[in-house]
Fold this sequence. Notes:
By secondary structure, the chain is an alpha/beta fold.
Amino acid sequence: MQFRMTQKSPPTPLPPLLAWSDLQFFVAVSGSGSISAAARALRVNHSTVLRRIASLEAALGVRLFDRLPGGYALTTAGNELNERLAGMADQVDAAQRWLTGRDAAITGTIRVTTTDTLLSSLLMPLLARFHAAHPGVQVQVAINNSFSSLTRREADVALRGSNKPPANLVGRRVGDIQTAPYASRSYLKSLGRQAGVADYRWVGLDDSLAHLEQAKWLRRQVPEERVALRVDSLVGMVDAVAHGLGAGLLLCPLADARSELVRLAPPDPALATQVWILTHPDLRQVARIRAFTQFVFEALSVDVRLAH
């Protein structure tokens, strides 16, 4: 048995990959028969069209146009390419319109971070109204007291009370949430008519919220032995005061909603906290984020429970 060794011919090289950005120059010239007309349609200058056509012909290794005094005429190879590309421009345009519309549609997920205070007193009713207007959006709410989740991009939007919002976020101030002293009717009744402020016991905040103005005020004004209870939640403070554990500096939107509570003095401007709707700069033009932040801003900007 004899074996004949044959040398394999080199594989036929694959045709170059062509980008639509190159082919659209060919389509524009073939459709108009003119470099200048193609340049106007593509909003580029004359030399750019010439350069891109020459580059395309070099990549394909064929001449696509005959340069005639009356304009550009397709060669045989040009005609074949033109037939293969028939309808592609319309398909690309349709795809771009679809993608643009998809980005503009109010759909998808919005991750919102806020505090229990703002969620219960201000935000929850707005979430219900926003969902009714945009049922294609799912809102996910994370309750915490820091901006870190938004800074780390773990959330898209923050509704926060802060007099010094982070400089790396963008947003708008929607108003101020006020604070005033309150006590329950039953607690005041138990003290008797002759009792004064010096007789009150107080509900305060624990060390985790010692940075808040309410906590600083209590440290300055109330002896430690007069503090009956400390909690780590402004919502918890309202419940404690409502149950007669003492007086407390409470957020007005929360306390005013409880009929069993009595405001003991007008709100102190020094205790007011600015309320902000914030997002990351990269997200502010996303349709669903823009719609949500605008909706919340407009609603809270006229909310009578906030000072404006």
